[in-house]
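Progress note, sequence design subtask.
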């Protein structure tokens, strides 16, 4: 008997040392780990380097021949690897500038350059077919007026100016990039009655104050300009002329005057070098200390005697959008989809944004294809997407989601997203129901530094601090989670300096190779994280959602809201959060018991279909107050926060506006939504217990 006891003891110890994989029975874990390890051997930094050099070789903004060429190159790779791949084409309003000018007409004459100089150290800085420096969806116009400095140009800055007796009405405002998304700056200027908005890159935020500028270092040179869209994305994303439906050839479109997401005032991005002569002429009070940048001037608020003229005109035409979609059908559950997307369009060459992320997607896809050559097939269907026109306003992904809305509602299990991946620290945002799942993935993938990716998120005491941030806006996951209620993860590695040439001609192969992910180690690691995630989502017997993390997140959102607005009536919301804690615990008990059972395939499929709809229980079909395209009631892009998420948005934003009675009415609807989520979780636990 003794040898048997020893064997049993050793087996039990080994089982304890093998961490579980959520959704997999213990007897399946060893085979799954072996499969994942094989997949993680395939991503190749040398191949990734070739993709970067090919895809970022020329400018490839949305609507251009360059963008189509990049899409066709990726399509060829997917087909070479055995995917069922095609380009899905849409059309969208993609305005290019036809006229831009900025000049100071008094008390001295000055004309801004509005161009970035060629650098001998960066051959691509002289490429032909570069988009000029501009903000897409700026209003057209030719206006003149006194200049006013508004710090970062967010609503709180205008409030501070008003307290000082300074009014933005009838002024041309100049704001610095940072603290919020550029569209928020344009929107706030428009709402405060400004004639036009200039947005410049102060060296304190991403230039010489932070470190050496390119070419010596990664940071923004004085003549560099951040292009970008100023679409009012908190209203809706996608083509401004087709809110809520896909924009294809011959489809219905709004008149441009009806497009709510296009700015009414001219908006123009400028460099620090062009901003300095304007700021130097401002009079009025000296700016508060925290408003001062690092240009060699005294920062005044204005207005003073400086008169500035701004002109911006655009072609306002629709142009083609090319999405690359590649599929590998599931052998057992082809009607359940795992999706992974990254965009392929750039403002100019885009070595970091987006090609550094796109190459990780390509190497993930190739790794999965290599596994299939060995005879393995995924249980669930895997879909890879390279989106176009992300930079203009998440257009390619949004139009695709709107076209395939019904199919996605019935089939999508999760959407994974990446964007730029310039190397450095790991960060993740997304649906709290996937937090435990992701923590297990990054526990099992090694960072280039040698420890696990999860270990890089430990504090000095060795305590793990990883948390998913709530999904806001800023990349192609938006339509999936906020419009359709599909769980999402948005993942990447980014460190200091990665924003240094953001949206400029210097986001090039030369800059990326010198200062970012030089040997594509982090591109390889992201591909390993993504391939592991996809294999687990595809092969799990039970979809690996978990609601304890969701409860913790919602409880935190509630506490923050309660502390900020103690005059709200949140009693019903509090009760539903308390119920959620119990439902999450009961669900987890049922999940752990069910994962080891041999279940009838039809019953198992029914359970997974129910679980896949969990995030959709958080939606209300009528949408958020004043912006019905956004239907998620737990998190959404904030009206004035841009990329950042606002949690419990229907209540929080009305309360912040002082509309307490309306906020309380929305709190009752929020409680209803949480009640529906609780009922959904309860039914899921019941279905699990019956397997």
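Output:
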């Amino acid at each position: 008997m003794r040898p048997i006891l020893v064997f049993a003891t050793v087996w039990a110890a080994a089982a304890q040392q093998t961490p579980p994989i959520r959704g997999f029975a213990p007897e399946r874990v060893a085979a799954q780990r072996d499969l994942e390890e094989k997949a993680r051997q395939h991503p190749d930094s040398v191949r990734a380097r070739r993709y970067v050099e090919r895809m970022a070789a020329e400018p490839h903004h949305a609507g251009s021949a360059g963008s189509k060429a990049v899409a066709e190159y990726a399509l060829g790779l997917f087909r070479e690897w055995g995917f069922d791949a095609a380009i899905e084409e849409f059309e969208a309003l993609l305005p290019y500038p036809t006229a831009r000018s900025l000049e100071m007409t008094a008390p001295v004459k000055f004309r801004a350059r509005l161009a970035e100089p060629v650098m001998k150290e960066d051959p691509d800085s002289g490429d032909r077919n570069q988009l000029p420096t501009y903000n897409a969806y700026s209003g057209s116009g030719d206006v003149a007026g006194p200049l006013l400095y508004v710090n970062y140009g967010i609503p709180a800055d205008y409030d501070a100016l008003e307290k000082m007796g300074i009014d933005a009405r009838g002024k041309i405002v100049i704001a610095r990039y940072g603290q919020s998304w550029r569209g928020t700056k344009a929107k706030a200027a428009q709402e405060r009655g400004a004639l036009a908005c200039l947005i410049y890159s102060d060296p304190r935020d991403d230039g010489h104050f932070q470190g050496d500028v390119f070419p010596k270092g990664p940071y923004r040179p004085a003549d560099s300009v951040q292009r970008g869209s100023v679409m009012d994305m908190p209203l809706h994303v996608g083509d401004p002329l087709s809110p809520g439906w896909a924009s294809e050839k011959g489809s219905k479109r709004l008149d441009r005057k009806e497009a709510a997401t296009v700015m009414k005032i001219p908006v123009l991005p400028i460099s620090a070098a062009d901003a300095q002569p304007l700021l130097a002429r401002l009079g009025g009070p000296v700016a508060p200390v925290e408003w001062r940048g690092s240009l060699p001037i005294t920062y005044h608020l204005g207005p003073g005697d400086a008169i500035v003229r701004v002109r911006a005109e655009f072609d306002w035409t629709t142009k083609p959008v090319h999405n690359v979609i590649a599929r590998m059908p599931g052998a057992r559950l082809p009607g359940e989809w795992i999706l992974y997307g990254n965009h392929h369009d750039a403002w100019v060459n885009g070595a970091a944004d987006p090609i550094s992320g796109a190459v990780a997607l390509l190497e993930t896809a190739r790794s999965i294809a290599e596994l299939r050559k060995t005879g393995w097939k995924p249980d669930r269907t895997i879909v890879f997407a390279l989106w176009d026109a992300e930079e203009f306003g998440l257009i390619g992904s949004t139009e695709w989601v709107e076209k395939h809305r019904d199919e996605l509602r019935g089939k999508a299990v999760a959407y994974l997203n990446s964007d730029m991946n310039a190397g450095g620290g790991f960060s993740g945002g997304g649906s709290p129901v996937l937090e435990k799942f992701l923590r297990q993935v990054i526990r099992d993938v090694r960072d280039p530094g040698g420890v696990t990716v999860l270990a890089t998120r430990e504090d000095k005491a060795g305590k793990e601090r990883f948390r998913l941030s709530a999904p806001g806006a800023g990349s192609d996951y938006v339509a999936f989670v906020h419009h359709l209620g599909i769980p999402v993860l948005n993942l990447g590695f980014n460190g200091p300096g990665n924003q240094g040439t953001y949206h400029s001609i210097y986001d090039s192969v030369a800059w990326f190779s010198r200062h970012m992910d030089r040997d594509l180690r982090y591109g390889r690691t992201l591909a390993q994280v993504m391939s592991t995630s996809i294999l687990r989502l595809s092969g799990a017997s039970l979809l690996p959602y978990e609601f304890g993390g969701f409860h913790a997140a919602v409880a935190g959102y509630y506490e923050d809201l309660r502390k900020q607005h103690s005059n709200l009536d949140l009693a019903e919301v509090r009760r539903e959060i308390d119920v959620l804690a119990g439902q999450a615990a009961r669900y987890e008990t049922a999940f752990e018991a069910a994962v080891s059972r041999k279940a009838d395939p039809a019953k198992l499929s029914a359970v997974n279909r129910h679980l896949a709809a969990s995030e959709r229980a958080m939606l209300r079909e009528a949408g958020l107050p004043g912006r019905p395209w956004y239907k998620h009631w737990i998190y959404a892009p904030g009206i004035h926060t841009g990329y950042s998420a606002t949690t419990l948005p229907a209540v929080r934003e009305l309360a912040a506006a002082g509309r307490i009675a309306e906020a309380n009415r929305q709190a009752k609807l929020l409680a209803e939504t949480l009640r529906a989520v609780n009922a959904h979780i309860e039914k899921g636990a019941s279905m699990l217990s019956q397997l």
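Confidence is low (pLDDT under 50) at residues 1-16. Work on this subtask will continue into the next period as scheduled.
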